[in-house]
């Protein structure tokens, strides 16, 4: 049966754990230099409406390490939903490639892409969610702690696609999640309601950063203005200025708490150099793990595990 990776909410706890187990195996092989061409002869289209260094590098390199080939399609190559209908693009690419990854603005486009595709589709990011990122993040936490028991994650900043995906994961895996955003910038309410109805995790939304980081094992942040919100940068800077992850705020978290950021970071805004480059930062571990987790997702979707 054809399966896509559009949202973490579509996956079970067992499936997520299987992806993490496969990630560990593939990462070990990569580190040892062991060939693992599980996707030899297979191809992946990478559709980018929204450019990204990490997404392109991690998927393209990962597919190469799996023995396959990834084709980069820029906004100039495919004007998705503009020059050609999403459904037509989906059906055509499905005839050429074995799997599709798309990094888009509009979430309805990734949903439509998957609806008409006859091959697996991976959500590389939309304005609504960012599932690959959060899978890499939680895998990194698991790697550092060895377990996910008694875990408190505090996300501080804009209630954006990353915050939404953390809440989705909290509806599948049990942990304590606090989202801390200024009034009017909270995460998607429908996702929040669903997570609270499932009652798998303790999920709360606060507006006070000092209160939010109390007892946190992980303090997580993201940019205050995402791509496409550049016109709001100054306004958002004024609104979010008290939501910066700095050493003073970190001193209020649990002793030994780790800091995470999905990158790119606007240093001096949402996070200081002292913190992102400091001993509590696991930012670059999570960045690396994007590639390893995505490889596991590709292998799983293609039935090559």
Overall 3D geometry? globular
How would a crystallographer describe the biggest sheet?
5 strands, parallel
Please report the total strand number as a whole number.
9
What is the name of the CATH topology of the largest domain?
Answer: Rossmann fold
Map the helices and strands.
Layout: H1 13-32, E1 43-48, H2 53-65, E2 69-73, H3 86-96, E3 99-103, H4 107-116, E4 121-125, H5 131-145, E5 152-156, H6 161-170, E6 176-180, H7 189-198, E7 202-206, H8 209-212, E8 218-221, H9 233-240, H10 247-250, E9 258-261, H11 273-276, H12 283-301
Parallel strand pairs: 1-2, 1-3, 3-4, 5-6, 5-8, 6-7, 8-9
What do these coordinates show?
With 305 residues, this protein is of the alpha/beta class. Helix content is 42%, strand content 14%. It contains 12 helices and 9 strands. The strands form 2 sheets. It has a 5-stranded parallel β-sheet. Strand 1, helix 2 (53-65) and strand 2 (69-73) form a beta-alpha-beta unit. Helix 5 packs across helix 12 (283-301).
Provide a short characterization of the protein structure:
The chain is α/β, with parallel strands linked by helices and 305 residues long. It folds into two domains: 8-130 and 290-301, Rossmann fold, CATH 3.40.50; 133-286, Aspartate/ornithine carbamoyltransferase (Rossmann fold). It has twelve helices and nine strands.
What features would you highlight for this structure?
305 residues, alpha/beta, Rossmann fold, five-stranded parallel β-sheet, four-stranded parallel β-sheet, globular
């Amino acid at each position: 049966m054809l399966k896509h990776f559009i949202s973490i909410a579509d996956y079970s706890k067992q499936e997520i754990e299987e992806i993490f187990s496969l990630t560990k195996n593939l990462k070990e092989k990569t580190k040892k230099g062991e060939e693992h061409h599980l996707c030899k002869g297979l191809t992946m289209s990478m559709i980018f409406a929204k450019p990204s260094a990490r997404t392109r590098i991690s998927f393209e390199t990962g597919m190469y390490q799996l023995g396959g080939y990834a084709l980069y399609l820029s906004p100039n190559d495919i004007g998705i939903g503009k020059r050609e209908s999403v459904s037509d693009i989906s059906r055509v690419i499905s005839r050429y490639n074995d799997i599709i990854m798309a990094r888009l603005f509009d979430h309805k486009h990734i949903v439509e892409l998957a609806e008409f595709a006859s091959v697996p589709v991976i959500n590389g990011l939309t304005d609504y969610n960012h599932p690959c990122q959060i899978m890499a993040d939680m895998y990194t936490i698991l790697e550092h702690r060895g377990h996910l028991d008694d875990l408190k994650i505090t996300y501080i900043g804009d209630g954006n696609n990353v915050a939404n995906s953390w809440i989705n994961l909290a509806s599948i895996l049990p942990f304590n999640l606090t989202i801390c955003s200024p009034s009017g910038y909270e995460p998607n309410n429908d996702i929040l309601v669903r997570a609270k109805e499932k009652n798998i995790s303790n999920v709360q939304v606060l507006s006070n950063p000092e209160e939010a980081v109390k007892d946190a094992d992980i303090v997580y942040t993201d940019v205050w203005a995402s791509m496409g919100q550049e016109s709001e940068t100054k306004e958002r800077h004024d609104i979010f200025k008290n939501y910066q992850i700095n050493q003073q705020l970190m001193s209020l978290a649990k002793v030994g708490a780790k800091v995470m950021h999905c990158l790119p970071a606007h240093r001096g805004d949402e996070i200081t150099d002292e913190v992102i480059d400091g001993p509590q930062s696991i930012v670059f571990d999570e960045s690396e793990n994007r590639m390893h987790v995505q490889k596991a997702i590709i292998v799983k979707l293609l039935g090559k595990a």
